[in-house]
Structure formats: structure tokens, C-alpha cells
Amino acid sequence: MELIKEIAVLESGRSAWQAMEQMINSGIQDAFFVMDVGEIVRRHHEWKLKLPSVEPFYAVKCNDSPMVLEVLNALGTGFDCASEGECAKVLAMGADPSRIIFANTVKPASHINFVAKAGVATLTFDNEEELYKIQALYPSAKLVIRIRCDASSAQCVLGMKFGVEVEDAFPLLETARALGLDVVGVSFHVGSGCSDPPVFQRAIQAARGLFDAAKRIGFEFTLLDIGGGFPGNKDSSLDNIADVVNSALKEFFPVGCGVRVIAEPGRFYVASAYTLATLIHSKRRVKNKDGTNSFMYYINDGIYGSFNCLKYDHAVVKPIPLKRSKANKEPAIGTIWGPTCDGEDQVTGPLMLPEMEIGDWFVFENMGAYTLPISCGFNGMPVPEVNAFADEKTLLELKNITTLNKKNDL
Ligand SMILES: Cc1ncc(COP(=O)(O)O)c(C=O)c1O
């Protein structure tokens, strides 16, 4: 993919939002995304500023679009891959295998064989059976033990499926030792969309305990992976988690201690970069018992498309009405529905909205995380296309780094 060629330039002073309005005014009928590339670049700068000692390995599962991966590749992040397919995608861009962590603790044998061949060295595990598999297929792998440390509240809990309980971690390391495997560090994931920043302190402290215990059986750990869980929406801030992480690292893994610290941010990088525009193609008036009207609006994307995030990511979405019709009617209760024939294909419950007409639009911000990779074309409904935009400053920055990368390759 020729990165820069695929990005449309925003005229000076114009925003991705204005580009979206222009597309709507041009008569487009399909639902579509605008992607603000500058947002990803700004996020990267924010990460570097606020978590300077933590190297980001972007979680590809969150949004595996070639554009996102190419931009992050140019910016020099690492990648957290969950499968052979994700590793292959990242490697095909020319990323060095050392920039990948295969961070799925349960891996099909064929995927392990693939990464062994490709030279992806770092793999996570959290159970004994996985160790036997790795010993048989890829005994020289650099292994990272994933411990469980759940946030008290998170949008998506992961601990019920992944991570060895902290009290069971040491016996697992003893097994790895007995099998002659090379364990190099500890990882955790507190839960995606974490709203309990202090959990990072508890998890980093638990990891420190395991680093020390591992030393007793001859392991010299050099890698700490603090996982994901960082917020990504426009109105969110990295500050609270960054403060906790920075002070816990200072206490338990001070600079110069010989430990490389990485993280696997997903939604942090991409959520706010994507805005989805959906057309109201149908409308139904419902007579309420008290004589008032409410309305059902049918839009051209739903839970089998981008709004799968309502089910799988437990997302809460907020429609922004974009009226094109002139008629100015009283606000009324409205519900928003997806386009398929499934009764469950509902995007929002009852909301007080300006009365909308067929041909008006609902816009949804923060739609870049855990949306597109899971979408399907159920009922023959198309998955919205993505239109990437960047301002001139962002494009220049990307151009400079891609030329630099090319020079380094020589
Ligand atoms: C292993 C792993 N790492 C990283 C992530 C990304 O998490 P987030 O989007 O919360 O940063 C996930 C998300 O499920 C994950 O499973």
C-alpha cells in the first residue's frame, strides 16, 4: 500500500468532520467512515509524552485496516498480534519480526509453526498445556507469562479467559524451567476500557513479585508487558492511568533496572480517529397511548456492521443528528435501528431527538475500535467504506518518516 497516496489532503483549516459534511452534501447515500490520520499521529505523540518509558505494541485486533497498520509502522510502534493472520499482515508491511509480540496465550499449532519460521520470537502463555506445545514446536521461543489481574471495572473483562492466577504463576514457571524453556518476562491485561487506574499499580507490583521469584529458579526476566486497557474516546484522558503506571514503574521497575517495558494499546490509538456517517433511509411513526408520536429511524449500518461493538465491545454510542431537511419540527422520542431483518438489530434505545426525516444523517464519533474487523455483510448490507484524511502537517510528518524508513532500509 502506498500510504501517502491513499490519504486525501484536508485543505488548510478544514477538519475531517467538514470533509464528511462535504461528502454528504455531494449526494453520497451509503454509510461511510471518515478517518482522521492526524488523530493517530497525535495519539502517538501523546503516548510518547505521557508514558515515555513504555514502548507501545499496537493491538492489531482492535482495527487491522492496512491504513492504521501502515501509519503505525511508519511511526515505529511494535505490534501485538493474536494469530498467524495478524502476524502475516504485519510482516507483509516489512516490519521486523522483533517488533511483534504474539500475545495470545492459546495458539493453534499451525500458528506456532508459522511464527517459528517467520522469526517472531516473543510469545505469551498462561497454562501448562501450552508450554508442552511450545516445547514440541518452538523450544527456542522467548516466552512471557501472562498473569491475571482484573480491573474492578472495565468495558471488556478478559481475566475469565486469560492469565494465570498470581498464586499459580510460580509453579507454572517451575514447569517451564523443567522443560528447558526460556521465559523472559511477565505480561498482564487488566481489561479493555479500564476504569480502575489503580489496578495498574497492583498488576505491576504483582509482576515485580514474580520477577523476584523467578530469579530463585534461575530466570533473569528482562521484559514487562503492561497490556492494554487505555482509553481512546475523544473525551477521555490517558493522564490517570499514565500517572499510576509511571509511579508504579518508578517504584518497582526503576529506569536502569534492565527491564524493557512494553504495552499493547488498542483502542487508545484508533477509537477517536474514526467517525461514522449513517443515512436515515426509512422512518416509522409510532402513535403513543397518550396521543404523542415517537419515531423509529432505520439507518444503513447496524449491529452486523460497525455497531457490532454494541454487543462485543459493550460500547455505548451517541448519535449526532445531522439534519439536511429544512422542516423544523418538535423534538420527539426516537429509537435507531440497523438495516437488517433481525429484530435485535437496534442501535439505540429511546432518546429525545430532533424529529429527523428520511435523507437526514446520524453521525457517530469514536467508532475506530473493535468495529470494522468484526463487521460482516449480513443480509447483503455493505460494510461502510473508510475515507482517510490528513492535514498537511500530518502528511508532511508521515512523508518525512517514510522517507527516513526507506533510507534506513538501504
Ligand atoms: C492480549 C490483548 N492485548 C491488547 C488488547 C488491546 O486492549 P485495549 O484495546 O484495551 O488497549 C487486547 C484486547 O482485547 C488483548 O486481548
List keywords for this structure.
410 residues; alpha/beta; Lyase, Ornithine Decarboxylase, Chain A, domain 1; 2 domains; nine-stranded mixed sheet; 12 helices
Topology:
Elements: E1 8-9, H1 16-25, E2 32-36, H2 37-50, E3 55-59, H3 66-75, E4 78-81, H4 84-92, E5 100-102, H5 109-118, E6 122-125, H6 128-137, E7 142-147, E8 154-156, H7 166-178, E9 182-188, E10 192-194, H8 199-216, E11 223-225, H9 239-252, E12 260-263, H10 267-270, E13 274-287, E14 293-299, H11 308-312, E15 319-322, E16 332-337, E17 346-353, E18 361-364, E19 385-390, H12 392-409
Parallel strand pairs: 1-19, 2-19, 3-4, 3-12, 4-5, 5-6, 6-7, 7-9, 9-11, 11-12, 14-16
Antiparallel strand pairs: 2-13, 8-10, 13-14, 13-18, 15-18, 16-17
Helix pairs in contact: 2-3, 4-5, 7-8, 8-9
Bound molecules: pyridoxal-5'-phosphate (PLP).
Per the CATH scheme, the topology name of the largest domain is TIM Barrel
Tell me the number of structural domains.
2
Low-pLDDT segments? none
**Total strand segments:** 19
Gyration radius from CA atoms, angstroms: 23 Å
Q: Please report the number of helical segments.
A: 12
Mean pLDDT level: 96
Name of the CATH first level of the largest domain: Alpha Beta
Name of the CATH superfamily of the largest domain: Alanine racemase
Instruction: State the share of residues found in helices, binned by percent.
Output: 25-40%
The secondary structure category is: alpha/beta
Q: What's the overall geometry?
A: globular
Q: Ions, cofactors, ligands: which are bound?
A: pyridoxal-5'-phosphate
Task: Please give the CATH architecture of the largest domain.
Answer: Alpha-Beta Barrel
Strand content: 15-25%
For the largest beta-sheet, the strand count, sense and barrel status come to: 9 strands, mixed
Question: Kindly, what is the distance between the CA atoms of the first and last residues, rounded to a whole number of angstroms?
Answer: 19 Å
